[in-house]
Amino acid sequence: MGLLDIVPSGVITGDDVRKVYSYASKHGFAIPAINCTSSSTINAALEAARDVKSAIIIQFSNGGAAYYAGKGISNKDQQASILGAVAGAHHVRAVAKSYGIPVILHSDHCAKNLLPWFDGMLAADEEYFAKHGEPLFSSHMLDLSEESKEENIEICVRYLERMAKINCHLEMEIGITGGEEDGVDNSDVDNASLYTQPQDILDIYNAFSKITDLFSIAAAFGNVHGVYAPGNVKLHPELLGKHQAYVKEELKLESDKPVWFVFHGGSGSTEEDIRVAVSLGVVKMNVDTDTQWAYWEGIKQFYEAKKAYLQGQVGNPEGENKPNKKFYDPRVWVREAEKTMVTRVQQACKDLGNVERL
Ligand SMILES: O=C(CO)COP(=O)(O)O
Ligand SMILES: O=C[C@H](O)COP(=O)(O)O
Ligand SMILES: [Zn+2]
Ligand SMILES: [Zn+2]
């Protein structure tokens, strides 16, 4: 039995998301969530997952969504980020089924000052639900980790009540992800806030599970966005095991892994840290920086290999009147970027055990 025996291909929502995360947790694997900023990067992520025969998560950051809409559009009042997220979601919905894999459609970090972005996406979900009986997106992330725990939980609960009505999943963050996100530099936050405490997880679990089980927690265990010099990041994925045990014991639950965890800052992480995190209930791992690099690397390699064909429209080593159109056509060099991105997404799938799961 595999994923396609329990959910359909294409974008999945509600109970199907529940089934996929339960299945992943039970079978000890996780699904990569790839930050996408264009139809090209979305297609590369889908192609990669199809070819390793598993599911994928496509997500848009606030800036990524604005970029999708077009840098020429003003982002006043989050208009470009809302428009781009909706446009990207429709692109994913239009093509996902053709790849024959389950796809979770998600939006990334949303801090308090970006709540108008969240409101805009949620309005689009509600509108889509009224027509189709499901939300446009499978899930969204709220990142109120910079606020107090009480305020974080209170705002999340308010949104979760609204999201539960349309079967939309919520990912929340507690403890701070280091490095940079949405241009906010968290590289010098104090060390303790990079590691979430078991009581925080219990408080969230208690408050959220009264409303729905369609939620996941990005608990900080030293995670950092971006890739830095080796040894710079100290991950403690074993903390996730403490959280699971604490929730199980306090609430007298059957399951050893009652919580669905999300691993932020997947780029540059060791296979061993990823393996431990997944064994302790991580069902989703975000990857952005490494797939950005992979995309660029394809172009870099192409340029280096074909440099003499890329200096003018006409004239190359084969003759001064030879045309170079088939080298500078974006479909040629952007495709090279897609191919190297596909390889990196497949590496993430392998690290997470997300292969041959259909
Ligand atoms: O967590 C992420 C997006 O939310 C991705 O982090 P990286 O860029 O470190 O892979
Ligand atoms: O927050 C982390 C993600 O890598 C998003 O990055 P971004 O805001 O540069 O798109
Ligand atoms: Zn954060
Ligand atoms: Zn993140």
TrEMBL record:
GO CC terms, sorted: cytosol
Cofactor: Zn(2+)
EC number: 4.1.2.13
UniProt-listed InterPro entries: Aldolase_TIM, FBA_II, Fruct_bisP_bact
Enzyme class: lyase
Cofactor-binding details, from the entry: Binds 2 Zn(2+) ions per subunit. One is catalytic and the other provides a structural contribution.
Pathways involved: Carbohydrate degradation; glycolysis; D-glyceraldehyde 3-phosphate and glycerone phosphate from D-glucose: step 4/4
Superkingdom of the source species: Eukaryota
SUPFAM superfamilies: Aldolase (SSF51569)
Entry keyword set: Glycolysis, Lyase, Metal-binding, Zinc
Example GO biological process: glycolytic process
Reactions performed catalytically: beta-D-fructose 1,6-bisphosphate = D-glyceraldehyde 3-phosphate + dihydroxyacetone phosphate
One annotated GO molecular function: fructose-bisphosphate aldolase activity
Record function comment: Catalyzes the aldol condensation of dihydroxyacetone phosphate (DHAP or glycerone-phosphate) with glyceraldehyde 3-phosphate (G3P) to form fructose 1,6-bisphosphate (FBP) in gluconeogenesis and the reverse reaction in glycolysis.
NCBIfam families to which the protein is assigned, alphabetical: cbbA (TIGR00167), FruBisAldo_II_A (TIGR01520), PRK09197.1 (NF006628)
Family of this protein: Belongs to the class II fructose-bisphosphate aldolase family.
The name this protein goes by in its record: Fructose-bisphosphate aldolase
Lineage, opening ranks: Eukaryota, Fungi, Fungi incertae sedis, Mucoromycota, Mortierellomycotina
Gene name for this UniProt entry: FBA1_1
